[in-house]
Design goal:
By secondary structure, the protein is mostly helical. The chain has one domain (3-95): Arc Repressor Mutant, subunit A (Orthogonal Bundle). 47% of the residues lie in helices and 8% in strands. The protein is built from 5 helices and 2 strands, in the order ββααααα. It has helices at 27-36, 44-60, 66-72, 77-83, 88-95; strands at 3-6, 9-12. The protein has a two-stranded antiparallel sheet. The two termini are 20 Å apart.
Length: 105
């Protein structure tokens, strides 16, 4: 398993480069991962998506699909692609400290 140094802490990653242990996540880590993913600042809309993903994961044990994300988070598909360019569900899950959603390549 790979590791990464974030904010002076060594964190294990899964085979997709996402946090292996979602409990190690916090908002500061999210900001660092976002910067690595080319997102300089997380806006209120970014946090709405991130918090929705984390809530769904906590309640259901899996990351919601992009379809569920756009239908229930209050962020439409076009906006989601603007917030998280080039693979929004996967990138949003990574920033949220969660595994890659099922169905994402």
């Amino acid at each position: 398993m790979a590791t990464v140094e974030l904010l002076g802490k060594t964190i294990q990653l899964d085979e997709d480069g996402h946090l292996a242990n979602p409990e190690e996540w916090n908002e500061e880590i999210a900001k660092e991962i976002a910067k690595q993913e080319g997102i300089e600042e997380l806006t209120e809309k970014h946090w709405a998506v991130i918090n929705f993903l984390r809530k769904e994961f906590k309640e259901n044990g899996q990351v919601p699909s992009i379809r569920k994300l756009t239908k229930q988070s209050g962020v439409n598909t076009k906006e989601l692609y603007q917030l998280f360019p080039k693979g929004p569900a996967k990138k949003a899950a990574k920033i949220a400290g969660l595994p890659k959603p099922k169905g994402c390549v």
